[in-house]
Structures are given as structure tokens and as C-alpha cells.
# Entry
Amino acid sequence: MGMRAQLAGIVLAGCLAGASQGVLGQTRVAPASLPPVPVPHEVNARIPPLRAPKSALVEFDLSPFPYEGVVPRTQRPFFDVTDEEGRRGHSSARGVLWEDATYSDKRALLFLPKGFDVRRPGLIVVFLHGNRATLERDVGGRQRVAAQIAEANVNAVLVAPQLAVNANDSSAGRFWESYGFARFIGEAGAHLARLHGDKRTRKTFATLPVVIVAYSGGYVPAAWALAKGGSDSRVLGVLLLDALYGEVGKYADFIANHPNAFFISAYTASSARGNESLQQYLAEHEHPFTTSLPSRLEGTVAFLHTAGVDHEDFVTRAWTKDPIRDVLERLGGYTRDPSKRSQTRQNVAR
# Structure
């Protein structure tokens, strides 16, 4: 096994201390030729709940990066710099970011919690990380994304693609393309079925509704996934964690066109301008929104202004501890274990 695979396994094995024992294992799934977009259809499978959590870092054929297209705002090729040795780079506001170091990781973190039951209504949580992030160190480690799903009594699985690696860049890559997100989530369904271990689950994962969670710089790929991704009808809701730095029009369109979906944006002073801009737009168009979270989220549009909270810790501490878990537990009809009661934590947003 190569050094990179060994490191990924070591980090993932220990990244969820405090969650269910062994939440992230060291399974690795090889990429395969997959149909880009599955045809959704209902399946009734007699498959028992998972006895143990399963996780993997999986290489995708249709990952956000590498990306060979153009930047929509400028219509310039994404890779617009080449050095003397033929190394390609992308010009950013902070300098050139090189393809081999920043845009060549095709992996996504997949996670299925103990007790996940394909016989019950379920969800796919797509987590889009911010700038200067890696899957091992940040998503699986300090941000506890998989742990929050494991600790929530919600029948949900995680798909978290690697975007720009450890860089100050919010580029969306293939999510800029029409149906780019649909192709990615279609491939994710096949990989989730393979990780689950029962091929009958393939059609189930192809139909599960999606919750998009974006932190910080993840707002760009999230906005384009909603606007051009081709799977917006599967999106049950959106959670932005101090992330509304732009693309306000795309989020406004999603809210207007999907009245039954939820949209929650929690923020600090860092992203206040974008949040205030969207609130103003909604008010001018007489679209209702709230500044607190109801117990049930269907059709809710909420803006949660937080104070005394650090942007760097916002995925684990926002209006409450573990905000992803809090939102998931407010979704009616997706309980993983009906015998357990979810405890709604105090809302400290103000």
C-alpha cells in the first residue's frame, strides 16, 4: 500500500473519537466505469440495518477536479498558466495554483453510520468544504462531519468530495458544468452501494433525497450545483455555514423555485453582507423568512446570526454545538432508530 493510502487510513481510523467506536474504517474502493446519471426508481429491499459503520476514501471518475473547462465569470480556460516543464496552473487572486498540487485529487469521503437502514426513508448529505481544507485533516477530523451524522438519529449517509486541496480557492470545477452535480451524485450512488456491500441497494441510493451542506468557500460549488447541477429536484434542503459570500442570485432562485425545500444560512460577521443582501431581496419580493429554527424544517427559510463564534470552528460550533447534527435531527420522517428520541439542543443564535 502506498504512503498516501496508508496516511489516509491512519487519519480516518482516528478522526471520529467520541462518536460510535470505529466510525471511520480503512476501506478503500477502486474506481470503476459507472453510468453517469442513474434512473431513479423505487425499491423495496429486505436488507437489515448495518451492524457497523463503513467509510472509504474513494476515487471518482466524475469528481469536481481535475477540470478541463472554462471559468464561467471570465470564459477563460481554468488552467491558464503553463510553466517551462509543461506544468499547468490556475491563476487566482493569490497567485498561481498548480494542477498537480491543488486540483488532482479525485477522491470523496463516503460514510455510512451504524444502523443505516435502506428499508427506511434516507438522505444523502453532500458536504462541500471551504478553503484550505483536506478530507482527512478537516472534514473527517476537526470538523467532525461524519461524527455528527453518526451521532444524529437520522438515516443519512455522507458524500464529501475533495475540492481545491488545502488552497485559498472556491472554484467549483465540474460543478460549473450543466448536469455536473447530477453526474457526480449518480456515481456516488454506485460507490455507496458498493461500500454498503449489497448490490440491491444501488437503486435505493439512486433515489435518496439530498441535503447540501456548504461551509465557507463551499458556497460556490453549492450554488452552481443548485443552479445547473440537474439534480435540484432531489435536493431536500440547503445548509450554509458562514458561507454566503456571493452567488446570492442563485440561492434566491433556488428558494423561489423550491418552496417545499428548506434553506438555512447561519453566519458570523464574516459573511454578514451576503446574508443581509439575500434577506433584503426576499423582503422586497415578499418571501417570508425567519431568524430562528422551528422544530420542523420543511419549507423553512432561516437566517441565524451568531455572535461570539469563531469562523474557523463554525462547522462544530455555530448557533449550537454540532450544527449539522442539529439540522438533520429537525427533519421529520428520516429517523434511523424509531426507538430513540432526538434531543433538540438550545438555539443560541441571536
